[in-house]
Amino acid sequence: MATYRTIFVGILRQESFLNVGGSDDPYTTVDSPFCRDGRNRPTLRGTGLAGALIATLRRLKGTVPIKISGTHDDRQPSVWHFFNSHPVRNSKMAYRQHVAIDPRTGAAATSALFNVETLPPGTGWPFLLEVDTFRDPESASLARQALLHWCAGRCLLGKEVARGLGWMRLENLREYTLATEQIDLWPCAQETDRYPAYLEETFSDLGVSVEETTTDPLGWVEITGSIEVGVRSNEYGIDSLSIGGHASEELLATWDEHFLSSDIMTESAFDPDFMIVTFEQQDEHGKVSRLPYIPGSTLRGPLRHALARLLKTNGKDLVDRLFGTIEHSAKLLISDAFPDKSKDAPEIKLAWFQHHAEDEFTASTYGSAKFDRVAVIQGRFLWKMVLEKTTEEERAALKQVLALAERGQVGIGGGQWRGHGWMPWKINHWVET
Question: How far apart (Å, rounded) are the C-alpha atoms in residues 411 and 183?
């Protein structure tokens, strides 16, 4: 009996924030809104999923068969059919603030502030890929090989993946192989809103779990490491971190157990001028809290400026190849860095720093120039970088600038000239796949 369709089902889980560009609405308050359908649901479009998986297959094989890529005139549609997806559960939208840094001053560049509407890490998206194995039996095997890389956390979707958005992992991947005798059961127009459940109910005896195995090389260099905030190992001072968040962070900020407590401090008195970037997290007991993180863009920008200073004008082409330009995509991709949840990780602690400008004549506070800033003073953050198809020269350049970061000479975040952001980076693994 001939094979009719092969269907892959799973859950795409965000490991970072995600933005999938939507319509350019002139009335929205967000510069880059999230894609939504006619029912106002956040949407991962099938076209975006198709492009991402075809890109994975191209990295893996070098070329993509025309039966998968399709033809420009639509005379030969692809044998891979992707379905739109919506989040498993409703998640609160989060706004990511972006700003270009002036390399001459280290401050925000003029007229370079914009924000992006995102969904937070941990959000799950049902994934469904239908392969027309009646037309091309080999296309299912190619899909399986590419999807195994997504199972290994090598799925990049949406906008700004170089700056940390859109890093995802495919979970619970199952494969259904349908024969021509099931042609009347698939597709089923009445079950389009619940296809994964319909497949399990109708074809439970045909579904098999796809086991994660050692995947073929993609030509990637994967680098993982951590940044630890707190008392220095030599006990000379404390490394702290202050990364400014969106304006809404100030409205969401609350005084909780993560702050250094004071007997006289009350929650009603907590009204910070500068709040750090945070994300919402829910523990196993349902308690919701906000924890700090380091956006990928916060790591990427200082590394670019540091490498440009190291190489000076002679290395501009090398810097552009690694970090990208308007015309060329970046070879270096950096994910968001989130708090380490391992048992030996230090507890996240914050402090509310009070600042003022001093009158040089009276040595007192100058007028009304008093302000405050929230900063992390204890915690460990795990980061990940990926290099795509780089040369030995490009890898050597990255090692050179990371050596500076390991010595704590690449500042990140705000308040760098007030002592924040000069932590030594630690490299845990450098793996070439």
Answer: 60
Instruction: Tell me the three state secondary structure of residue 113.
Output: strand
3-209 to CATH, choices 3.20.20, 3.40.50, 3.30.70, 2.60.98: 3.30.70
Stated pTM of the model: 0.85
Cβ neighbours of 198 (radius 10 Å): 17
Question: Averaged in consecutive runs of 10 residues, what is the pLDDT profile of the chain (433 residues)?
Answer: 87 93 70 85 92 92 88 78 90 78 66 80 94 92 94 90 91 93 88 87 88 72 92 81 76 75 66 80 71 90 90 80 84 92 90 80 76 88 91 90 93 85 91 73
How many CA atoms, within 13 angstroms, populate the side-chain half-sphere of residue 308?
16
Sorted by where each begins, the domain ranges of the chain are 3-209, 220-432
Cis omega (within 30 of 0) for bond into 187 = yes
* Coil/strand/helix, residue 99: strand
CB 329 within 8 A of CB 389: no
